[in-house]
Fold laccase.
Amino acid sequence: MGAALIPSPVFVFSLLCMMMCSLWLFPAVASAAIITRHYKFNIRLQNVTRLCHTKTILTVNGKFPGPRIVAREGDRVVIKVVNHVPNNVSIHWHGIRQLHSGWADGPAYITQCPIQTGQTYVYNLTIIGQRGTLFWHAHVSWLRATLYGPIIIFPKHNVPYPFAKPYGEVPIIFGEWWNADTEAVINQALQTGGGPNVSYAYTINGLPGPLYNCSANETFNLKIKSGKTYLLCLINAALNNELFFTISNHSLTVVEADAVYVKPFQTNTLVIAPGQTTNVLLKTNPNTINSSFLMAARLYFTGIGTFDNSTVAGMPPNNTMVANGTKVVVLPFNATVEVVMQDTSILGAESHPLHLHGYNFYVVGQGFGNFDANKDPAKFNLVDPVERNTVGVPSGGWVAIRFRADNPVHLSWGLKMAWIVLDGNLPNQKLPPPPADLPAC
């Protein structure tokens, strides 16, 4: 569902650099009580045209991107997913803590077997201690290239934002578009050991910007009042790439990251890694009538690729070993964990996004080059580190995070590592039995 604010006078923000976005308005929620919200996701094939190319893609309810989930902190959310396509499917609710609902997290072959053709699974979860912007996406292979959508969590009734209430709220989802079959793209990369071929276009809310071929009319114009403050809810649903986001002649005030409020700070440019969400306040310039400003998002890339894998004859770079598989580590309940992640940039010059399922963590340190265990810990921020569920490890650099393993659920990092947290001793420290409709393999 798309809409636009059409007051006067207006600013018009035209996305000209890489992308196009559409405006989704949040519906008002009338009930003051904590309620159960029901959604139905029908996974269907849909013909979609971008860049003058029509292809059949997987969608939820025929929409690309998919429908938004809207709730308040404390609400129970029940999503019935029905698979009408030949592909096996599962849905991950990216960033939801899943306290006592680990069976609803969604990673295929980890917390559940995928939903097979003609089957149904009901995801049942409660939003505890979170408010802000998250998102959902498919969690089988690269099906998330088209199966994704926003999760908007409002504060509890009569609980205000820790900042002045914005005049309007606008979800903006960064994504990608392939003319090719994305499953063929990732399968080729897995066979050769090289990085996957790049997408044809970057998108916002499923639409590319006007600088791409055959996309001149696919530019979003956001009409807003001068001198008003808007909350932009940014979601990076792109598969692998960090993006820089900016609006010409305006600054942004960051107020929330991964559904956690932060100490507000201003910036002209924001970098957002795949899987991250960030809410920013945009105060439009006053006393400007019928003016246009550019809103742009660009790829962040620190070097050339490892090799050109544009043909099926591509071979991995010399002196590299390519392997498939997942390593599993078991953690005792309530353990305090510190992890330092080192990027080697052997197979690519991009930053690597890593996401912790069922948990938030504190980013206590980061840097470029190799981590020095003797010197770098002294520089850790143990006073007010940012709290996130996804972090980008810089190319050739490192990130240190800390968390407490107090949720008996799996924790998966990227594609190659999974941790399992054991049950605690008390009843509320144990993972409940699986639901009766948990999909079978």
User: Anything to note?
Assistant: The CA atoms of residues 319 and 346 lie 10 Å apart. The chain has a mean pLDDT of 83. The chain is about 0% helix and 40% strand. The radius of gyration is 21 Å.
